[in-house]
Amino acid sequence: MVVVDVPSSFSHIETYSYYLLDMMVVYAWIIVVTIFVAYGVHYYGVNALQEKEDEESCNFYEGSWVRDESYPLYDSLACPNIDYQFDCLKYGRQDLNFLKYRWQPNNCDLPRWDGKDFLEKLRGKKIMFVGDSIGHDQWQSLVCLLHASATQTPIIHTDSENSSIHNFTIPGYGTSVIFMRQQYLVDIDYEDKIGRVLKLDSIKNGELWKQMDILVFNTWFWWNRNDSGKPWDYIQIADKIVKDMDRIEAFKLGLTTWVDWVNAEIDPNKNKLFYQGITPTHWKGADWNEPQVRNCSMETEPLSGSTYPSGLPPQVLIMEDILKKISKPFHLLNITTLSQLRKDAHPSIYNGHKTMDCLHWCVGGLPDTWNLLMYATLISDDH
Ligand SMILES: *[C@@H]1O[C@H](CO)[C@@H](O)[C@H](O)[C@H]1NC(C)=O
Ligand SMILES: *[C@@H]1O[C@H](CO)[C@@H](O)[C@H](O)[C@H]1NC(C)=O
Ligand SMILES: *[C@@H]1O[C@H](CO)[C@@H](O)[C@H](O)[C@H]1NC(C)=O
Ligand SMILES: *[C@@H]1O[C@H](CO)[C@@H](O)[C@H](O)[C@H]1NC(C)=O
Ligand SMILES: *[C@@H]1O[C@H](CO)[C@@H](O)[C@H](O)[C@H]1NC(C)=O
């Protein structure tokens, strides 16, 4: 047997070819890994982007009002105990066109309102609206929406002796839908010798609020109210008591006290938190390009399109700035613009006062949409 003396150069070549082979394997791996990584990045990247797009396109609050013959969602004359401020049909409103509009977001659809489904979701739960008469308005609408869906079930409306609390309970579901009147969210206390004191840094009802599964807060109009109607005689800030002060400053301090309460006390596992954005009034036709108009009495149609001629009221920016300090999960019912478009949805003279009202809203009517938006948010959170 001839022993082939392998020339070193050959050996070198062979070593080199092994080296090449190794490198090819390494390169192959690099290529394979690169393809996987690239594909993965692509896949997840596209997905993340898609999700972002879905989120963006599903801004419920950008949209317009469209006529919908299937509306209204209930017959308000069959809804018991509608507050005299909101009961437009009972007090003689004849133009019923305002009940026929559905809010249509620009880039997605709202889930269909399903009262029976919502009742199931609210089984055993307590939901509370805390705030002024605009919170009362939304509570009233939710009462009517749920009442219409619970036809098989007796429903009791309990006004407790405590007139600041309206408690609507749905037996068979163990659900309570409660409105608590606290116009400023912070406290008004009666002090001997002085009288009623609006306390900008005091919230005493928090223990009751914390027992609620869903909370919807609002405040604005009373801060801006002039002397005749205000329910306080003095304002207290820490230890200082004053006769009056810049109301915007007072609003900022009061709302900040509420934000501090939220940050300290809300338990995201127990309390779902909503804040009802500021709603507009329609006293000034100039706001919607009808400068001669001074109230809402002749308005029978919403504005078309998605924008309101005069833009957002300035207090909205003040509110948003303060709400930015909330560190707990919460959802802003951003209803300002969509409500601005509804100059037709106020009671006007069709209310128990028989005076012109372009501040509150008829029930049924616009507040039903605020509740549909809350429903949409709650069911999309469930996913
Ligand atoms: C609320 O909606 C309006 C109109 O779509 C928008 O201009 C505003 O930025 C929104 N505010 C927040 C806090 O999302
Ligand atoms: C009504 O209830 C609230 C909350 O429990 C309480 O702060 C308030 O003092 C009560 N008012 C009356 C008149 O009982
Ligand atoms: C509302 O009524 C229900 C049923 O009567 C009761 O259990 C609940 O404590 C009441 N809630 C408030 C805040 O009054
Ligand atoms: C209160 O009324 C006065 C005089 O009518 C007016 O100048 C002022 O702007 C009003 N203040 C508020 C907060 O509405
Ligand atoms: C409401 O506006 C109408 C028409 O613009 C006017 O005739 C009427 O006097 C106003 N009513 C009130 C209470 O402002």
TrEMBL record:
What protein name does the entry list? Trichome birefringence-like N-terminal domain-containing protein
Show the stretches that span the lipid bilayer: 26-46
* Keywords associated with the record: Membrane, Signal-anchor, Transmembrane, Transmembrane helix
Regarding the membrane, this protein is recorded as: Single-pass membrane protein
Lineage top rank: taxon: Eukaryota
Gene source species: Stylosanthes scabra
* Residues annotated as domain Trichome birefringence-like N-terminal: 56-109
What the record says about family reads:
Belongs to the PC-esterase family. TBL subfamily.
| Signal peptide coordinates | none
Tell me the organism's taxonomic lineage: Eukaryota, Viridiplantae, Streptophyta, Embryophyta, Tracheophyta
Q: Where is the Trichome birefringence-like C-terminal domain?
A: 110-376
Location of the protein in the cell? Membrane
Mostly located where? Answer: membrane
